[in-house]
Amino acid sequence: MKMFLMGAFGIVALASLGALGTWQIVGPPDRSITCSEDLLEDGQICLSEVQGWDNQSYLWVDARPRNIWENNGIEGSILLTDDDAEDFLALEEAFMQAVYREGDPFLRVLIYCNEEGCGSSKAIAALLKEKFAEMMGFDVYVLYGGWKALADAGLVN
Amino acid sequence: MKFAIVLLFGLSSLMNAEMVFKTKLVEITAKPDVTEITAEFPFEVKGSVAEIIEYEAPCTCLTARVEPLNPDRSTKLRWDIGENGRIFGRFKMGNFKGTVDKAIVLKMKGVDKPIQLVVRVTIPILFEIQPSTLKWEIGETPKEKTFKIKVNHNQPIKLIENSGTSSNFPYEVKTIKEGWEYEIKVKPSSTEKPGMGMIRLKTDCAIKRHERHQVFVVVKKERK
Q1: Which residues of B touch A114 (CB under 8 A)?
Q2: Domain extents for chain B?
Q3: Is B3 in CB contact (< 8 Å) with chain A?
Q4: pLDDT at B116
Q5: What is the rounded average pLDDT of the residues A62-89?
C-alpha cells in the first residue's frame, strides 16, 4: 500500500514538474479566441471573415455598457446596449443615423459584446433584424468571441 | 503517508469537479408591468468536489448569486460531493420587448469550458407597430405608405402625442379604433434626394417601458 501511494505521488509530482517546465518554456496556455465554422451559432461570424471585407461595408455596434465602450470600444463603433441606465430610443436614433450614412446605408452591421456568454449582442441582433435590417438593406452578424476576439487581433486595447 | 493520501485525494478531486444542473435554460414569460424577474438553477455536485472560481452575468441587467451562503454569509464557492445548491439570477427588464436570452457564466476550477446558464425572457409587446421603418428608393414615386399600430393589451393604450422630425415626410395619424388600433400614413414631399426622418409617439400607457415609441422614414439609394 505504502509503495503504491509513493508511486502514485511520484507520478503526480513528475507530471506537475513537467507541466511547470512546459509553462516556463512554451509560455502560458493559449486562451485566445479560436473561431471556426463548426463553432458558430446562427447569425455569428468569425473575425477572420470580417477582415476579408471592405471596411466601408460594415458598421460596428458595441452592446456593452457605455463606460466600457467609451474606455475600449473599437474605433468607429456605435453604442447600442440594453443597459437600463440608457435611453434606448436615443441610442436607436443614433444607430439609425449612423447606419443610414446619408442615404447609402452600410451593407452589414457587426455586433460585439464582452465575450461569448454575453446575451446582449444576440438580443440587439434580433432587434435590429426584426425592426430595421430588411428595410435598410443590411445584414446583421454577432462577432464570435466578442470584444476579446478584437483584442486578440490587436484591433482594440 | 496521511499527507500523501490527502494530497492525492485533493488533486484527483479537482480533476473531476462536476456541478450537475437540473436545467441550464429557464424560460419565463413576463407580465407587462413587471420590472424584474428571477430565475433559479438548482444543482447537485456529483463525481467529486466542485469549486467555482468565477461567476458572472456579462450584462448589467442580470445579477447572479450562489446559494445557500456559507455560515459567515460569504459566497460558498467550494462544494462537496452530494451537496445541493442553486444559482440565482435576477433580471432587470430594461428596454427590451420580445424574447431575450441572458446568460450567467460559471468558471469552474479544473474545467476549461465555462458553464452557461441561460435565462430566456419573453417580454410582451403591448403597442405593436408594423413596420418600424418605411423606405423609398431615390427617384421612386413618392407614394403614400402606412405604419399600422395594434394594441396587444387587456386595456386600451391611447396615442396622445406625435411629432415628426423632417418636413420632407408629412404624415397623418388615423384612429381606427381609439386605444386599440391606429395608422400613420406618410407621403414624402420628394424622393429626389436621400433623407431620413422620425416620428415620435407618446401613449398614455402607465407602464413606462411601453409609453414612448418611434418609427423611421427614409429615402435611400437603391441596393443593386
Answers
A1: 58
A2: 21-123, 127-220
A3: no
A4: 87
A5: 91
Q: Is B127 helix (H, G, I), strand (E, B) or coil?
A: strand
Does pLDDT of A26 surpass 60?
Answer: no
Q: Is the model's pLDDT at A81 over the cut of 60?
A: yes
Lowest mean pLDDT among A3-17, A49-63, A109-123, B143-157: A3-17
Cell of B35: 420590472
CA distance B81 to chain A (A): 23
Report the 10 Å Cβ neighbour count for A27.
8
Per CATH, the homologous superfamily of domain A37-152 is Rhodanese-like domain (3.40.250.10)
d(CA B90, CA B92): 7
- Is residue B210 a contact partner of residue B32, using CB atoms and an 8 Å limit? yes
Q: CB A118 to CB B220 under 8 A? A: no
Q: What's the complex ipTM? A: 0.78
CATH architecture of B127-220: Sandwich (2.60)
Least confident piece of the model among A5-14, B28-37, B106-115, B130-139: A5-14
pLDDT of residue A38: 80
Does the pLDDT value for residue B58 go beyond 70?
no
Say whether A132 and B223 touch across the interface (CB within 8 A): no
Distant-in-sequence, close-in-space partners of A3: CB < 8 Å, separation ≥ 6:
none
Nearest chain A alpha carbon to B117 = A117
Report the phi/psi class of residue B95: left, alpha or beta, with left for phi > 0 and alpha for psi in -120 to 50.
alpha
Q: Hey, of B56, B59, B212, B215, which one would you mutate to test binding to chain A, going by the most A CBs within 10 A of its CB? A: B59
Q: Do the chains contact at B114 and A117, CB–CB below 8 Å?
A: yes
CB contact under 8 A, A117 and B103: yes
> What local confidence, expressed as pLDDT, does residue A19 receive?
59
Measured between alpha carbons, how far is A136 from B159 in angstroms, rounded to an integer? 26
- Best to test chain B binding among A6, A118, A142 (most B CBs inside 10 Å): A118
> Chain B residues with CB inside 8 Å of A7's CB?
none
Interval B116-140: pLDDT, tens: 898 888 888 999 999 999 999 999 9
Q: Residue B177 has which C-alpha cell?
A: 379604433
| CATH 2.60.40.10 at B21-123, yes or no | yes
